[in-house]
TrEMBL record:
UniProt keyword Transferase, yes or no: yes
Catalytic activity, EC: 2.10.1.1
Stated role: Catalyzes the insertion of molybdate into adenylated molybdopterin with the concomitant release of AMP.
Swiss-Prot/TrEMBL keywords: Magnesium, Metal-binding, Molybdenum, Molybdenum cofactor biosynthesis, Transferase
Domain MoaB/Mog, residue spans: 173-306
This protein's name: Molybdopterin molybdenumtransferase
Organism: Aequitasia blattaphilus
Gene3D superfamilies the record matches: MoaB/Mog-like domain
Essential cofactor(s): Mg(2+)
């Protein structure tokens, strides 16, 4: 720090907050630490009784916190993100569109492990809206070695830490199976739930078929829907291990690759995910999707719409936190049931 005459302080950077106290009215900082003194600030500072100021003593090889924060911003910022102006070594990134936030957590941890700097993000895999805050970057000290910031930049490389992936508004088809629905003994209450969930993401229902428990007919219908251009197929009913539950066999017989039949999630254990050779997802949805607030379907769907490959390993990892607490007031995804990528 360096003590300078206030009248000579233009262009210098304040090392501490300068507070104004007016009894009964205000007690707040008029100038914040890191503020660069301007000509018009001088009368205000003098009116506050500040004849001298502690300012940052510029040294070769050192960066002011705002300059360093901009380097962190550059490291973190992907496309479709707006940066706020630097303030006290802090810059925030704001979403320019709806999408799924993906964070390179390995490289994020490397940055945060260096010390004297930090990047705090929303969880990777979270669906965000335009205008949402995605992350904040901050440099801890008022000044930091340029060499340290250069090291951080070189360590991370060219690719940004954050991506904002678009959610594809797919055209999907639904197959409802079960003799009880096919023969009109009960009403199909499953499909309206799926339409509501898919419409949240702007997806359009192409085709809906109600079939008996005949695995050959289910297989043929899936193949026809794929030929008709379905970008996702949702199958309901027939997902348990009862002898007359034929949906898993029907999906397998289409030639699609089964990623997982079963998931360590409650509700949602009897879930099936498969991909065709052209990477079109086919889902076998358990009955809980029809009546539970949140299920395995809510965890997987955003990744599929963002075209992030859902793997067997990712599904296996859902077990830690995979038990929904079925709270009276649902706060999903702001809870332990939600999983990112």
């Amino acid at each position: 720090m360096e003590l300078v005459d206030t009248k000579e302080a233009v262009g210098h950077v304040l090392c501490h907050d300068i507070t104004q106290i007016v009894r009964g009215k205000t007690k707040d900082a008029v100038f914040r630490k890191g503020h660069i003194v301007r000509e018009e600030d001088i009368p205000v500072l003098l009116s506050l009784g500040k004849e001298h100021l502690y300012v940052w003593e510029q040294e070769e090889g050192m960066l002011h916190e705002n300059e360093a924060a901009d380097i962190l911003r550059e490291i973190a910022q992907g496309k479709f993100m707006t940066a706020t102006k630097p303030k006290e070594g802090k810059i925030e990134l704001i979403a320019e569109r709806d999408g799924l936030l993906k964070v390179d957590t390995e490289r994020l941890n490397q940055i945060n492990g260096l010390g004297e700097m930090m990047v705090a993000t929303l969880p990777s895999g979270l669906v965000v809206k335009k205008g949402d805050k995605l992350c904040g970057t901050r440099v801890i000290p008022l000044v930091i070695e340029k060499e340290k910031m250069d090291h951080a930049r070189s360590m991370i490389g060219e690719e940004p830490l954050l991506e904002l992936l678009p959610l594809k508004q797919v055209k999907y088809s639904v197959i409802t199976t079960g003799s009880e629905v096919f023969k009109g003994r009960i009403q199909d209450t499953f499909t309206p739930v799926l339409i509501d969930k898919m419409s949240e993401y702007g997806c359009e229902l192409m085709e809906h078929k109600i079939l008996d428990d005949n695995h050959q007919e289910i297989t043929t219908t899936i193949q026809e829907m794929l030929k008709n251009g379905a970008e996702m197929i949702l199958c309901t009913g027939g997902m348990s291990v009862d002898p007359d539950d034929k949906t898993p066999l029907a999906i397998k017989n289409t030639g699609a690759q089964i990623v997982s039949y079963g998931a360590p999630v409650l509700p949602g254990a009897m879930f099936l995910l498969a991909y065709t050779k052209t990477r079109t997802p086919i889902l076998g949805l358990p009955g809980c999707v029809m009546y539970a607030k949140r299920t395995i379907f809510d965890l997987v769907l955003p990744l599929l719409l963002a075209e992030i490959p859902v793997t067997k390993e990712w599904i296996a990892d859902l077990g830690n936190g995979g038990l929904c607490r079925n709270c009276e007031v649902c706060h999903f995804p702001n809870c332990g049931f939600w999983k990112g990528v």
